[in-house]
Each structure stands twice: as structure tokens, then as C-alpha cells.
Amino acid sequence: MSAGCVAVVGALAHLPTGPVTATVVMDGGRIVAVGATLSELSTREGAARWKGAPCELVTAPEGAELTAGLVAVPSRMGLVEVGLENASRSDDPRVADPVRAALRVVDGYDPRSTPIAVTRIHGVTDAVSVPGGGWVSGQGGWVHLTGGTQAEAVIDDAVVLVAGVPTGAYGEGLQELSDLLAAARLHARNPGAWTEGRYPAGAGPSDLVALDAVVRRRLPLMVGADAAWQLEALARWKEREQVDLIVTGAAEGWRVADRLAAAGVAVIVDPLVYGPGGFDQIEARPDNAALLQAAGVPLVLSTFDTHNARNTRVVAGNAVRGGLDHEAALRAITETPARLFGQPDRGVLRPGAVADVVLWTGDPLEIGTSVLTEWIDGAPMVLRSRQTELFERYSGSQ
Fold first, then answer.
1. Which among 349, 343, 354 is positioned nearest to 3, based on CA atoms?
2. Which residues contact 251 (CB under 8 A, 6 or more apart)?
3. What residues contact residue 52 under an 8 Å CB cut-off, 6+ apart?
């Protein structure tokens, strides 16, 4: 597959400034130009030239729309093949060690894992793969959903540190997290003064070095919480600790949306959680995402399901049904996750951005829409997976 010049013309392109019919030119793995008219592009008799050089011309059919590639976060992409078969899992080391901050889970990433292609053909070009287990699970990485090796697929091996609150007594749990960060600060100032007996229970020197990246705001911390009172407590904790915090779940986030916005807490929500799935979700409602967005909370939408991450655009569509603005929903599965996880040149259609681009038959948030063409790093993807191969085999179309 080549990452040569490609010009896509005639599609409704979802740009940072809003949707407009525009031409998008990709070359060398990057978007090089976006505009309604481009003087450096000439098209004639089904061929194109960009700055005088040959360029593949893709003319979008009527009604087609163009977006940046979607992002699945958080996920176990490339880490879990069969959930109930431990031999096919590398997301959780399944050891007693509760603090695994130094773990970089993408060292166990399998770029040939079956869910990758299944997810990719639904317009998802990137994912954040995260570990599980322990109460400090380790570091998640940013991966491209293409490539046959880790070197090709792993873009950044550490974009977030995943943790939990280690006890049912929430105040005590947050204090334990604070104590761990305090140990990281002390260790960073004088690592030579530490002996084996001084490390916090379950933590080692490499764990404290990894936690120091959170303290210095080089990595965000990801913590799960749903109840409004938990979210309020996390907002105060974030302000005390002065770290970058991303909360997953936030089912009752709408109740404390202004507080989350004031503290600068980002949230990742599933718009299909709108009922009391548990005592911490009693006041979940379908307009949760819309209310969080209106309050100014950085918003990401997710399925929270690796094997159904292909439905990322479907949950975004449901957020729109619940009142979220259409373009805000698209940003919540493209631009916002890229920015929150340290990838500002991804998830957006603008000159200089990485050419992860998807051409759709129509509105990508409509369930009946499908992918026409997809590029990752400017290279066209083959829209095949184990599922399409099985369909062809057993439907007799092969």
C-alpha cells in the first residue's frame, strides 16, 4: 500500500470549523491541503495533478461525507483475543502486585489480533489500548489499527496511566492515591536515598518513576467513577494534586457537570448508559453527554467494549439522539480523544495532520451508513476482516 498523493473531491468534509463541501489532499502520510477550491490542484478527464505531479483522484458520490478516522478509547485492542481464555490475553498480568505503574501494556500488543480488522472496517483508525488489574494497572498506549508489527502499529507506548480507587471507603482510597503520588515526588527529588523498605507496599522504583510522569503532567491519570458524589470528590482531589485527570464512566456526570468543568476534569462516557445499572448509576440519563458538553467538560464517547468498538459511531449517534450537537459528537470520537492523549496532529481534517481519513456513504453517525474508502497514514486500507471472509465463504459469494 502506498501513501502517495490522493485528492478526495466532492464530499461533505467535517472540518474543525464545521461541515463544508471541500477537497482534501493527502500526500506522504499527511493532509497537505483542505479547501473548497485549491489552485495547486488540477483535475481533468478523471485524473488529478497536485503541484504539477500526478495525484490519485477520488470523486465522492452524491451524499458522501468525509471525516478523520475514529478513535476507540479506552480499549483492550490487540491485547484480548478471547476474553475467557487467559492464554489469549495480555491486558492483565494476573499477579498479586497491586501497583503496576511501570507496566507498558503495548509490549503485549498483537497487531494481528482479529478484532483489529473487524473494528477498522467500521472507520476506526486508532485506539488507546489500556491494561487492567491491580489498583494502579499501568500505562496505556496509542495504536494504529494497521501494520503487521508492533513497530508499525504502536505510535506511542505511554499516553495514559490507568488507576482505580483501591478501597470501598472512597476518602481512604483517594488518600492512598495521594500517598503514592507523594512517594513519587519524594523519589524524584532524591532516588538514591530510597532503600527497599521505603517503597510503598506493592510499588518499586520503576513504578515511582512512572507515577512521576503523572505528577509532572506528562501523562494523564485515568480513573473510573459513575456516581455524582464520586465525581465531585475526584474533582476536588484533582485540584489538590494538580494532575491531569480523565474519568471513565461518569454516568451521573450531568449532576456535577459545572464542577467537573471548573476543575478541568475530562470524561469518557457511554451514551447508552441511561438507567440504574447499579447504585452508582441511579440518576443516569440519555442527555448526560449533551449536558456535560454544554457545561464545557472535555468529552469523549466510547463503547467500553473492545470487541464492539466498531460501534463507536453508533454510540455517538445515540448521544446526538440524546441532545448532543452532531459536530460535538464527531469531535468526541476523533479530535478530543486525540488531544487528551497527546496526539494533537490526529483526529482532525486540517493541513499538517496525519492522514487518517474515512470516506462514508453518508452521515457517519447514522446506523445505515458504511465506509466507502479508508486511509491510515495516507495509505488505503483493504476493507476485509475475518467476518467478511466468513460471510463470503458461507454465503457462497466467494
1. 354
2. 226, 227, 269, 273, 277, 280, 281, 283, 284, 288
3. none
Query: pTM higher than 0.85 for the full model?
Result: yes
Q: What cell numbers appear for 12 in the block?
A: 461533505
Measured distance CA(300)–CA(108) in Å, rounded:
25
Residue 174: CB partners within 8 Å, gap ≥ 6? 165, 233, 234, 237
CATH code assigned at 19? 2.30.40
Same domain, 129 and 32: no
Q: How far apart are CA 256 and CA 109, in angstroms?
A: 37
CA distance 8 to 27: 12
Residue 74 gets which letter from DSSP?
E
> Residue 212's domain spans which residues?
70-346
pLDDT in tens, 141-197: 999 999 999 999 999 999 999 999 887 789 999 999 999 999 999 999 999 888 878
